[in-house]
Amino acid sequence: MSVALLTPLVLTLGMILVIVTDLWRTSPERTYRLSLLTLALAVICSFWNMTQAPGKIWLFLTDVLVFDTMSAVFTSIAVFLAFLCVGISWAAFSEEQASSGEYYSLMMASTLGAILVVHAKELLTFFIAFELLSIPLYMLVGFRRYHRKSAEAGLKYFLSGALSSAIFLFGASWIYGGSGSTNYDAIAAGIGQHPQPVLMGLLMVMAAFAFKLSAAPFHMWAPDTYEGAPLPVAAFLSSVPKVVMLGAAIRLFASTSSILEYETMVLLSTLSVLSVALGNLVAITQKEVTRMAAYSGVAQIGYLLIGLSALLGALGGSRFELAGEALGALLFYLTVYTVTNVAFWMILVTVGKARGATHLDAFNGLAQSSPPLALALLIALFSLAGVPPLAGFVGKLYLFRAAFYTQPLMAFFGVFGSVLSLVYYFGVLRRCYFLEPPAEAAPIELSKSSQGLLWILLGLTIVGGLYPGFAQICMRVAERMIAL
Amino acid sequence: MTPWLSIVLWLPLAAALLIVMLPGQNSKAFRTVGVACGLVMLGISIGLTVLGAPLLKAAPAGGFIFKESIPWMPDLGITYKLGLDGLSLPMLLLTGIISVAVLLMSHRVENRQREFYALTLVAICGTLGTFLTLDLFFFILFYELASIPMFFLVGIWGSDKSGDGRIITKNSAAVKLLIYLQAGGGLVLLGLMGLYFLSGANSFDIEVLRNVAYPTQVQQLLFAFLFIGFGIESGLFPFHTWLPDGHSCAPTPLSMLLAGVLLKMGGYGILRFGFDLLPMGAHDVMPVFAILGLINLIYGGFCALRQTDIKVMIAYSSVSHMGMVFLGLACVNAETISGQMFGLTGAVFQMFSHGIITALLFGVAGTLYERTHARDFRKWGGLAAQTPKFAIFFVMGALASLGLPGFTGFPSELSVFLGLYQTDQTLCILAIFGLILTTTYLLRAVQFGMYGPLNPKLTEVKDADFTEMVVFSGLAFTTLLFGFYPEPLVSIFQATLRNLGGGTLF
């Protein structure tokens, strides 16, 4: 138990420490180092916790937060991603040094909220954690307030986020009215003869989840926000909230799936079909790479939702072995996708800083002006597009295999979507490799540490594809989760 | 036992890595490594053909030789498994020959040579892998390894087609090629996933899956997926439009590789996965697709007749000739009854023959384009007077392609027509009309390009150098050798064809 509590504790202390030291006008670099150290510690704690296999531990007022394998796994992924995003902040964000104390403490606050989201076992606690995740992000997105696009992005994200919170609360009230409880287990038990109010509530809660996941048709905020937000914040936004919201969705819907299996499956399948189709099609037309990344993120969430609906379908039918497979596939693909995604954003950050823009034209001739970076981009995009033998492909293979047994059509649909996605991923690569660099383009230099980090991440995507061990770990973990 | 197949398969990839890591910008070193790798591959593939032919005769029906097998992802039932049978052996030989030709012909590439050789070698590795692997998962992997470098090779080192008719830029050609190859790959992936999921055996291994009896309707559906997917890769009408664009914009060595080997992956895939794993599907569905093959043959011929750009013309002639392969495959139904395998034999032989001949044609045409800077063969006018060596090989290529006896084109096409006659006489008569078209457009190109008065602007053009002579005469020798004496090659794959689908087809 003590180990499980360490991660949030470290994050809280680190956050307070950053705020306090900021009072003495510590140098921005020291603040950066302090927050990076905090997050590194949190990563170590969370991984240590994951190896402990904690069983179920109830905490606070019985049944409010739950510490189990699932929360341990999702915490580890989220904290690791947050660590990476904070890591790339220094290079991308040096102009904001004056307010670095606020920036890093907000990042850590949001990470703390993200962790609590997957621990919540009850709707109100979930809501508090959800707000703790979101409110710092509203500020972070609009952090370059003097910059028109950033301010606009902040406002847009805030308005749509506030709307999603409201919808969530409204849905939660329906669920409470229909079942008499806000606790996930008690909801399932209290549904009784008339599931309609609970179903209505679940629909609205799902809409709120879809907002944060940026699944179509609730994705409208994503392109504008990604475009305007500071790049490391956009990287954070496109990975950490998605991981934890997916974890929270698994927790909530898995507990109700035994009763509302068919309905939730239909809802999720609709979301995923829309996301895959719309995300992939619209991404083709984008000229701004950040916007393209947003739409491709919509499509990727679509693939993950295919896995989620497969999981719920298997759970609802009490086919636990299949459910383990689906959850393992989901975990593996989620990890692979978010890690590759952050690597992709690292490259975006570097190019954006060196060439002053993240428009498609900024990538012209990258292969000639800085070959290693172009190669890194190639690997990242290949993995995102699902080109074998990279981890992205193996992840999709597992995911579609899991979906095949419950919804074969969805698997076919996913494959079609992946083929479509090649067009825009390769559109970027085409610029990198086919065109000549602009005359004034200087080679882009990466610092040693970020270069090392980038290659470790990309090495992981290659090894994850060729070496089956990682996927097997995910499968074992998933079996453990299902068994509980 | 030495794992010869793994050696020949991974050698190009190792050479590519070596080239990437070589210090300096010494283009001679890149070339030496590339050509040496190609020569070793050719040596191994000839050795395996000579050693393998008797072994195959001794092997049990439907068996593989030189097998290697390592479990890879046991969870998913993926095995790294290589093997040779009568189908893959000719393809191995073809890949060996074309690889050397391609690598030798790469000396005219001027910019970014390191990347060019590395990517070409990766593509060769991928292509060879698709022929050697016995595991569906690895097939997909190698397929991507073969097709994705093509995108870069066409886009970076290609040339634009200008002049009469539609203008094609290398940029659009590369994107088109990528989308079509990936769409084909997607359909194939769906078909192969279907094979995997519906088997219930949790295995990607061909030797396991061929023992699974899929229901007839499933077989028909999956076969249609596979046929169209592989068809796209081989330029099946109406999905052939990437082929003229891609081939004509590609740099010369790459045109040779694309038309010589990559195009054969489709036909090979149809036989390996469609016919062998889904015999009932092939039996029921294939005759329906005969009509598409006929359109390929005739329509491709008419398109070629209209071209003035030599590379586009050869590309359309490939569309036309691949139609012959599809027609040969479509004979399966009647041949099941008669027990003779003219059509299928012709189809496989045609794949080999077309690979060699088109590589020769593209090699000559591409080199002439680089020398004269004209792709319109009417502007060549009377080149035979200036460059007799080129003229000899161009005429040889044209004659081989139109099916003159003595070249491989003749026995392979004759065999397809024999099969077609047994299947459907109307189809056969219509298809023979395609031969007339082939003769017309090829001889037209020869007449306008090589004979007549010499274009005064071309008096400075140099004749073929030593490397080109080696490549061209090697290819010409191969087509003559197996044209006069096809038996050793044909006997290799005939036994395997007879055992397709566990012997249920014949």
Description:
The complex is a heterodimer of chains A (484) and B (506). Chain A is mainly α and 484 residues long. In chain A, 80% of the residues lie in helices and 1% in strands. Chain A contains 20 helices and 2 strands. Chain A has a two-stranded antiparallel ribbon. The longest helix of chain A is centred in the middle third of the chain and has 45 residues, at 240-284. Chain A starts with a helix and ends with a helix. Chain B is mainly α and 506 residues long. Chain B is built from 20 helices and 2 strands. The radius of gyration of chain B is 21 Å and the shape is globular. In chain B, 63% of the residues are buried. Chain A binds chain B through residues 382, 387-389, 394, 397-398, 400-401, 404-405, 408, 411-412, 415-416, 418-419, 422-423, 426, 430, 433-434, 468, 471-472, 475, and chain B through 72-76, 78, 137, 140-141, 144-145, 148, 151-152, 155-156, 171, 174-175, 178-179, 182-183, 185-186, 189-190, 193, 197.
How far apart are the termini of chain A? Answer: 17 Å
Spatial sequence of strands, sheet with the most strands of chain B: 1-2
The description of the largest β-sheet of chain A is: 2 strands, antiparallel
Q: What share of residues of chain B is helical?
A: over 70%
Order of helices and strands of chain B: HHEEHHHHHHHHHHHHHHHHHH
Q: Multimeric state of these chains?
A: heterodimer
Low-pLDDT sequence parts of chain A: none
Structural class of chain A: mainly alpha
In the sheet with the most strands of chain A, the strands line up as 1-2
> Helix/strand-derived class of chain B?
mainly alpha
Defining traits:
heterodimer; A: 484 residues; mainly alpha; two-stranded antiparallel ribbon; 2 strands; 1% strand; B: 506 residues; two-stranded antiparallel sheet; globular
